[in-house]
Design a protein that fits this description.
The protein has 9 helices and 16 strands. By secondary structure, it is an alpha/beta fold.
């Protein structure tokens, strides 16, 4: 008897894209310092402009923000009138999946502001509004959470930290088995690898996309400290995730975290793993540590042969807890 075809399948991120979606940070409630918000907006424009050299980019912003955004954007970047509060399109944007007939749908994981930690009156509607503009059906996963909290290889395997999903701030009354069943259905996957993660220490409850990324079927790139501090819960959790992935017989390559970085703050997110693979390119962060930056570029070139690796100073994203992958969401070709 033939295996039942999944209702939805999310393609691998490195597959060809029709476009990239990004969001314009605009809320002074979220980012009260105007000077910092200006820098943050410029960083988003810089990322959008570089991605637009490889594939179409649609930047989401309320109509009232279009004039100021347009001044910073390349002519090829489209502006869509979809209001936003913050920039994290990986989390509040649509998760695109293929239906059995090959057409696209939005496999909807409901964004609730990382467990109600941040306003999301506009961002919580982004995915549905994009689906409406594109004329795509929205298929509810039955989950609250964020796509940045789960990694998929596009070939049946998922990995995630329990802390981002089996958490009363997102999915009360659901067990890990319940969450797993719904995630597998949402992505059209067959197997899931869990590790514990860290709850309550950052707004995301430790999204896995800032630590480890699938770069192909069963192949992982993970960013670890050279000298782990066993009193740091993130270091302990990162080592646990590494060991779990190795025990699962995945092909795991380690790259070191930057040490001599420009921003020294202890809560700064300095993740080489939080890159974005687009058509013909990989857009990644550099942190000012020449040796670590070089190792990261070399690893990305190895994992994405034939693509141009572009590195950017995106320190402002690290200061607000994320990176380039967090700020982007791909629409499959």
């Amino acid at each position: 008897m033939a295996a039942k075809q999944p209702a939805l399948v999310v393609p691998a991120e490195e597959d060809r894209h029709a476009r990239t979606f990004m969001q314009w940070p605009s809320s002074r409630q979220v980012h009260p310092e105007k000077a910092f918000l200006d820098i943050l907006q410029q960083t988003i424009a810089d990322i959008a402009n570089r991605i637009a050299e490889f594939e179409p980019v649609a930047l989401l912003a309320g109509a009232e923000d279009h004039m100021s955004a347009r001044k910073r954007l390349a002519a090829s970047v489209e502006l869509w009138d979809i209001p936003t509060e913050d920039l994290w399109c990986r989390d509040s944007g649509p998760l695109f999946a293929r239906q059995p007939d090959g057409t696209l749908a939005v496999s909807h994981i409901r964004f609730n502001g990382w467990g109600g930690r941040q306003i999301h009156k506009k961002d919580g509607l982004v995915a549905a509004r994009i689906a409406k503009r594109l004329g795509l059906p929205v298929i509810d996963s039955g989950l609250k959470g964020e796509a940045g909290g789960v990694e998929h290889d596009g070939h049946g395997l998922l990995m995630a930290h329990e802390s981002s999903w089996v958490n009363n701030n997102r999915n009360p009354r659901l067990s890990r088995d319940d969450v797993e069943k719904r995630l597998l259905a949402a992505y059209g996957a067959e197997r899931m690898i869990w590790s514990a993660g860290v709850a309550g220490e950052d707004i995301t409850d430790y999204h896995i996309d800032s630590l480890a990324r699938f770069t192909g079927p069963g192949r992982v790139l993970i960013n670890l400290p050279d000298k782990p501090d066993m009193k740091d819960p993130f270091h302990v959790a990162a080592l646990d995730t590494h060991d779990t992935l190795v025990a699962a017989k995945l092909d795991v390559e380690v790259i070191p975290e930057p040490v001599r970085r420009r921003v020294k703050a202890i809560d700064f997110v300095a993740s080489y793993a939080n890159y974005y693979a687009c058509n013909g390119g990989v857009i990644a962060a550099q942190f000012g540590d020449r040796e670590a930056d070089r190792i990261a570029v070399k690893a990305l070139q190895k994992h994405y042969p034939g693509r141009e690796v572009v590195t950017l100073n995106v320190d402002t994203l690290g200061e607000v807890g994320g990176g380039i992958h967090c700020a982007t969401q791909q629409m499959p070709a």
